[in-house]
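Deliverable D5.2: sample structural annotation.
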Amino acid sequence: MYSRISFITLAVFLIFFIEAYPEQSIQGGYSTKPLEKAVFDQARTTAGLLHINSWLNENYSSLTDKTKKGPRENLYYLIDSWVKSIYQQDSVVFPKDYDGVLKNFFSWSERLGVYGGNLVYNSLKSDQDSLMPALNIPPENILISLNNDMFDISSKKGYWSVSIPYYFMIWKVKDYVTKDGIKTQLIAISPGAASHDGQDGQSQSTLMFLYGPGENSETFIQYWSKIFGFNGNEISEELPLDSLRSHKLYDKESSIYTEYTCLNSENGAVMVYYSGVNGPYQWNRPYFIDFLNSLRKSF
């Protein structure tokens, strides 16, 4: 009788504990499939740290906003590869213990024009290191914060929010009116890195979020779809998400795929654009779906 009561008590306790302390999912539930293959192995990534550290220390002061693009992309190939090595070893993407290599990488990200890089650095630094200030400030109506291994990006007015893994590169954040009078909030992100298919090299894909606050949905979508080169020549494809379809193009000459999908609500219209070279496009496409899943929770 005693053992039966004890078993029941233990079972009730475990149910309470699980409900009170739910298991934290890796990178907010984003797919881990793209983490299975890095463009650089751990040895090459470590060597890359030494090289890029030396090069940036020597050349950083002469870089312009335009010439920061190349070093910034190279830095994130290294960050992506290092994060994948962490995942292969520990089944997490944010290091469990102090990681000097990753901290060093993120000591440069903010200086090379990445939003939120200081937040990651300050989470990785030792107690002896000074806090890094933000050098890239989002527009007043867009908020960026770090929550464990995820960036939370949101509208200050609560119209939308989305989360992405912390090692994604946020390289543009704007809240403006286009020359044609279209109000737009824009966030440009580069997720992951992968080798090109059928040609040398590697690259990241591009995820772009565009929101038209209070805009006529049709006008907003028509404007931006034309900007991205969609003129009725794209194919339509059903996405693995209820009621969402993607509009897709492929350019044989450049080997670049582009696609977009749209969401509408009483607060406005959203377009999510995704593109990449053959290889990185396919490898990182699960992130496009995961991004939409995250966005739909708020929009």
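Annotation notes: The longest strand covers residues 256-265. Residues 69-90 form the longest helix (22 residues).
The annotation will be released with the project's public dataset once the embargo ends.
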